[in-house]
Each structure stands twice: as structure tokens, then as C-alpha cells.
Design goal:
The chain has 443 residues and is an all-alpha fold. It folds into two domains: 211 residues, MFS general substrate transporter like domains (Growth Hormone, Chain: A), CATH 1.20.1250.20; 202 residues, Growth Hormone, Chain: A, CATH 1.20.1250.20. Helix content is 79%, strand content 0%. α2 runs antiparallel to α9 and α16 packs antiparallel against α20.
């Protein structure tokens, strides 16, 4: 056994890091992106779709509460492989449930387990990455892991959606089309699981903690929690993390239905395959470009200088959807270019948000504090997203709006723009709390 571990400890990182981060990204996008379009195509109302899929975000919100226990129960390698097998089973469960009359409850149950498994996989896979590589190799491969996570984004938001859309058009049976899609995804994930059973390394430090039990871990967590809320400007930071992305949190549940719905319903009448092309190629490329530019500018000018411009870049491009809902252009190229512009703005604006969370987490228990920040970020996406469908259904019923002869999507996207005032306000609060010199990085 020891010789076997020795062999796998020195495994070439190129043999497992690319596939590991594809395995980390795919279930996340399946749970949080594919479900929105799938349930919309299966005929759920906007309120039902947004509420049910919004709940699926919960595991990423509460992930910090159980992440310490991954350290004391089994190894990171064991957790990683076990979660991949469980995710594979859940994907197969979704595939089997969709053609049945009980598809909604059964598939949501599978997605719920998949979400918890995926969040746990995030913890163990990142931990394995740290344990298996020294600091020099960690730095060398950080771009590789990010790149292949983005490739998972292309597959999850693009390739899989295109496959489902092609099947919808050819077999003219939407439940069966998505059932086949998730069946193929399950087989692909099973192959990743088998490959990782062999290829993942056995780091010598990857072992359950013997020095700390559940009580010690719980006490450590409580200490981290208390020290987090003793930080200066903590409530400014919490409000910022909850509300900075409010316009995006509202939009994210309705954009894909907007692209898919018919012209008569106020949508753009794109096919599922066309939505996959926009999301998986143009959208991802624009998002990455915006993020890269944001990082370059902050490294030169500092966070404080770029905080408000990036808040504007995150919110104001939502005007793209106001325009599209009003004009409903037939040109796929024009729609793609405009959504690419909106995604570029989002990538650019999100850079300052991530850097601020790193900055706020500095000091004692930085890792735990950063996990709390990401939990608040996830909660800020989850709650507005859950009620976005309800707003879409009920905003047109307001008397003053019902007299304006606007389509439902027009009303909704203008409401989203209105919420950008909240983003600007919380950004201003953070701006005042930052050092006068600003910060150029998280150090």
C-alpha cells in the first residue's frame, strides 16, 4: 500500500488537475444553469421554476458549516471520488425520472443531493489540490485549474444545452430529450470517476485529522465565526456581499426563459441550441475577457479607484435586456453581440467584488473568513433568485404598470435596472470604508 501511495503522490499534475476541475464545474452548472432552462422548457411557471431552482443554491450557502468535518472524516481523495460517484448516480436518477409523471419531485430530489455532493466535492477537490502540490506547483497550475473549470462552463452552459436542444428538435419530445441528455452526462461523469480512481494522487498528508475531534472543530468554527463579526466595518461588508449582485441575482433566473419564450410571450423565440451557443461560447469568452481586463486595471489603479466604475459595469449592461425586450430583434447575431457585451460588463464588475472579499478576509482565520464571505455571496444570489419568478408574474398586475401597455419582460427588466440603485449605495458604503490609498491586491 505504501509503495502504491508513493507512486501516486508523484503523479504528473497534468494527468489529473484538468479532469478534476472539469468534474468540479460540470455538476455546479448542471444544478444552477441547466435546471432553469430545462424546467422552463418542461412547462413550469416562472414562479415555480425560480423558487424551486433557487433552493438548489443552498448547499453553497451553508458549505462553511460542514467543510471542517470533511477534514476529520476520511481523506480528501476519498471524499472526492465518493462525491463523483454520487453525482453520477444523481445524474442517472434525473435521466430516469424526467419521462415519468413524478418528474418534478423526483428530479428535484436528485438535484438536491447532487448540489450537496457538488458543494462537498468543491471542498475536497480544492483540499486535494493543496495537499498534492507544493507552493510552487500550486502557483504554476492555478491558471490550469481555472481554465478547465471554464471549459466545464462551456460544456455545461453550451455543449450540453446544444445537445438537449438538438434532441428536442429531432425527437419532438422535450422530457425524453433532456432524459437522454442527462443519461449521456451521467455516463461521461462515470468515466471521469473511473479515471480518477486511478489517476488522483495519494498525498502523504492527506489523512483524517487525529489531533482534532468534532468538539475541537466545532469550537474552532465558533471562534472563526465570532472573530469574523468582530471585524471593523463587518456589517458594511455583509450588506455589500448580500446586495452588490442584486440585479444579476434577479436576472439569472429569467434571462434564459426570456431568450426561449415566443415573441407573443414577450421573449426572443430562440431555440434551445441557440441559447447554448450564446451561453457556452460568446457569453463565456466575454465573461473571461471582462474579468481579465478588470484584474489588470485594479492591479494598476487599486480597488478603491475602480470600485464604483465596476459596480456600474456590473449593473448598467442590464439595459441590454430592457432593449431586447422592447425591440425583440430577429437577428441572432445582434442578440449574441448584445449579450456578449452584458457578460463582459459582468465579468469586469465581478472582479472588484472578489478582490474585496479577499481583502476583508485578511488576518486571523483568513481561510474561514473567506468561506463566510462566499456564503454571504451565495445567499445574496439565492434569495432574490427564488422570488424573481414571483416578481415577473406579479409586477404587471400593479395598476400603474398595467396601464403602461408594457410586456411582462419589459417591466421586469426595468425593475432590475431600478435595483441597481441599491448596488450603487452599498458600493458607496464600502468605498468609504476602504483605506484612502486603496488596495492593489489582497495582501
Amino acid at each position: 500500500m505504501k509503495s502504491n501511495q508513493s507512486i501516486h503522490t508523484s503523479t504528473n499534475p497534468w494527468k489529473w488537475i484538468p479532469t478534476l476541475y472539469i468534474a468540479e464545474g460540470l455538476p455546479y452548472f448542471a444544478v444552477n444553469t441547466l435546471t432553469v432552462l430545462m424546467y422552463n422548457n418542461l412547462g413550469l411557471s416562472k414562479s415555480e421554476m425560480a423558487f424551486y431552482t433557487g433552493w438548489l443554491y443552498l448547499p453553497w450557502v451553508i458549505k462553511p458549516f460542514w467543510s471542517p468535518f470533511v477534514d476529520i472524516m476520511r481523506t480528501k481523495r476519498w471524499w472526492t471520488i465518493a462525491m463523483q460517484l454520487l453525482i453520477c448516480v444523481c445524474m442517472a436518477g434525473v435521466a430516469l425520472s424526467l419521462p415519468t409523471s413524478l418528474f418534478l419531485g423526483a428530479s428535484l430530489g436528485m438535484f438536491w443531493i447532487m448540489a450537496f455532493s457538488s458543494a462537498t466535492h468543491d471542498i475536497s477537490a480544492d483540499g486535494l489540490y493543496i495537499l498534492a502540490l507544493d507552493e510552487k506547483k500550486q502557483a504554476s497550475f492555478v491558471g490550469v485549474r481555472s481554465t478547465f473549470y471554464r471549459i466545464a462552463s462551456v460544456l455545461g452552459q453550451g455543449g450540453i444545452v446544444i445537445l438537449a436542444g438538438t434532441l428536442e428538435e429531432r425527437i419532438l419530445n422535450i422530457p425524453l430529450a433532456w432524459s437522454i441528455t442527462f443519461g449521456i452526462l451521467s455516463i461521461f461523469f462515470f468515466l471521469l470517476f473511473l479515471y480518477h480512481c486511478y489517476s488522483l494522487p495519494y498525498p502523504k498528508d492527506d489523512m483524517p485529522s487525529k489531533d482534532y475531534g468534532i468538539v475541537e472543530i466545532a469550537n474552532g468554527f465558533i471562534h472563526s465565526f465570532v472573530t469574523f463579526f468582530k471585524k471593523k466595518y463587518v456589517w458594511t461588508a455583509v450588506v455589500f456581499m448580500l446586495l452588490y449582485r442584486l440585479p444579476e441575482a434577479l436576472c439569472i433566473k429569467l434571462v434564459q426563459p426570456f431568450l426561449k419564450d415566443s415573441i407573443a410571450e414577450g421573449g426572443l423565440a430562440l431555440s434551445t441550441a441557440h441559447i447554448g451557443i450564446i451561453n457556452g461560447t460568446i457569453g463565456v469568452i466575454s465573461l473571461l475577457a471582462g474579468g481579465i481586463l478588470g484584474g489588470v486595471l485594479i492591479s494598476k489603479g487599486g480597488l478603491k479607484r475602480w470600485l464604483m466604475p465596476m459596480a456600474m459595469a456590473l449593473t448598467l449592461p442590464c439595459l441590454v435586456y430592457c432593449y431586447l425586450s422592447y425591440v425583440q430583434p430577429p437577428s441572432f447575431v445582434l442578440i449574441s453581440v448584445l449579450i456578449g457585451f452584458e457578460q463582459f460588463g459582468y465579468g469586469f464588475g465581478f472582479t472588484s467584488f472578489m478582490l474585496y472579499m479577499m481583502y476583508f478576509s485578511k488576518g486571523e482565520n483568513a481561510t474561514s473568513h473567506y468561506s463566510f464571505c462566499t456564503a454571504f455571496m451565495a445567499l445574496g444570489m439565492m434569495i432574490p433568485g427564488m422570488f424573481a419568478g414571483w416578481l415577473f408574474d406579479n409586477l404587471p398586475e400593479i395598476s400603474i404598470l398595467s396601464e403602461m401597455n408594457l410586456k411582462s419582460y419589459e417591466i421586469f427588466f426595468w425593475f432590475v435596472i431600478l435595483t441597481s440603485v441599491i448596488t450603487f449605495y452599498v458600493t458607496f458604503l464600502v468605498y468609504r470604508s476602504l483605506p484612502k490609498a486603496g488596495i492593489r491586491d489582497a495582501d
